[in-house]
Amino acid sequence: MATDGHAAEPLVEHKPRGPNLKNPPLLPEDQWPTYPGFNFEILHRDQGDSDARTGRLTTPHGVVETPAFIFCATKAAIKGLTMEQMKACDTQIVLSNTYHLHVQPGSEAIRDMGGLQKATNWRGPMLTDSGGYQIFSMGHGSVSDEIKGRRGATDANPNPPSLLSIGEKGARFKSYHDGSIKQLSPETSIQIQRDLGADLILVLDECTPFHVDKEYTAASTRRSHRWALRSLNEFVRTANEGAQQQALYGIIQGGVYRDLRAESAAFVNAQPFFGIAVGGSLGASAADMYRVVDMTMAMVRRDRPVHLLGIGGVADIFNGVSHGIGTFDCVHPTRLGRHGGALVRVRHWPKSACSLAVQSSPPVHTNPRGIDTFDCVHPTRLGRHGGALVRARHWSRGGGEGQVPRASIQLAKGQFRGDARPVDAECGCPTCAAGYSRAYLHHCVRAGELVGGALLTQHNVWTMNALMADVRAAIAAGTPLEQVEDHWLAPGLRSADIVAADAMRRGGAAAAAAGDGGDGSVAATHATGVAAAAGGRSDGGGAGGGSGDAADDGSITAAAL
Ligand SMILES: [Zn+2]
Hints:
The chain is an alpha/beta fold. It folds into two domains: about 30-40 and about 55-160 and about 185-310, Alpha-Beta Barrel (TIM Barrel), CATH 3.20.20.105; about 340-560, no CATH class. The protein contains 19 helices and 20 strands. The strands form six sheets. Strands 4-5-6-10-11-12-13-14 form an eight-stranded parallel β-barrel, surrounded by four helices. A three-stranded antiparallel β-sheet has the order 1-2-3. It has a three-stranded antiparallel β-sheet with strand order 7-8-9. A hairpin with a 7-residue loop joins strand 1 and strand 2 (about 55-60). Helix 8 runs parallel beside helix 9 (about 260-270) and helix 12 runs antiparallel to helix 17. The radius of gyration is 24 Å and the shape is globular. Zinc ion (ZN) binds near residues 423, 427, 431, 459 and 462. One of its GO terms (cellular component) is cytosol. This is tRNA-guanine(15) transglycosylase-like protein. Keywords: tRNA processing. It comes from Tribonema minus.
């Protein structure tokens, strides 16, 4: 990792273990920040089983009704759309990335433009992250890609930067922009975010990949706590230096380990942060992520706004909202759009495809000791009622997209040539309302015309905001979230399907383990379902959110109802 001129530099220090590392002094209560101009109030709580709630997050630049989606203006720009267009799509809040703006053009340059909101003409609430995630991706490279579902360089980060060292003080790295050596520490991250001037800012943290051992995760989590305290101290020290009031979020780390998440949640709960973000490794799959969110949210104090970092698949949002998450961010809707993909709801798909798609009750009661046999009336009852079990090969792929419901469609596909309909005739977005046809969008995408990606991004932004509005309305009206999800995702793609598919996989693995010499035969009694979605991620968002383009989760093991 050492580069020319830095041969003597230590290699990346991956072990945040050191002798006698002590927490910085805790801030005395009489010095705690008070966050003038900010407020969070809970408006409605789900009266059913879930912890879903609506809230009103007030900032000096306006109000965010939660749950809400935060769109990524990574380098102080939404790729393909102006902020006026974002506003026309009912966007409430956007974010920019501290690390990328530190590299180019530098936070002082943004400050001299009057701050992010003035420079971008986004006059609403805004968030900046701390740059911690980039430190993590510099240090762990492909593992970051793994968690985020990314393959190689990304749009947001086309030139992966070069990390020179990471240690207790912070990180040193070589700029991908001009080769200069840059520093990012808890203190400089806050100073940069002061210059940028977003309403909501984050403490510096390190995000570990899921495959590192518990010892590493524990040491990293505690270092992130020390960084959080330093960030808090710097936030207080610089309270009068920024051009405007800001509010600081702490970040809960702890990886996939319950006791570490509990330790981290207790730490963040106790410190005077305005809001709480859930970060760190969320596991290797969407189902892992749901488990980590579930167990973490059970430990989070309920009077603060909660943000889930980097997650934004449609099914992931339903899962997160049900646990009380208020805001989500992910590059997926905008990246999908500029690569020719359009988010679609269930109504896009023929009823026949949806009703035949997937029946996905959990097939087994999971049992870590191993399950060998299953019983259920389902196969016989199904047959009596006209249903037939089918395998993945039943469903066509590629050109037969119309037969397999997904969370998005890819306009580049040949089936849209000559299709005069808008993406969604019932959609109110500026693209669909203006009547742009699938045929024209197909042409633009195929021809590489930028306006095609912009029009689809506009549709996707509007659609995500419509999704969040539906979610808020349902919570306020006491409507079960599952009913809303049924309108958005076809069977097999829903959050419950992802959980069910995971339970089936785990049950199968347990059964296999028992067959290899397990210590007993255990039957799962009255398991009700047979099949569930395999790889049923909603839209490529998955555990990291934002992996990608149009979902290609065409392999579905399906049981007709
Ligand atoms: Zn539309």
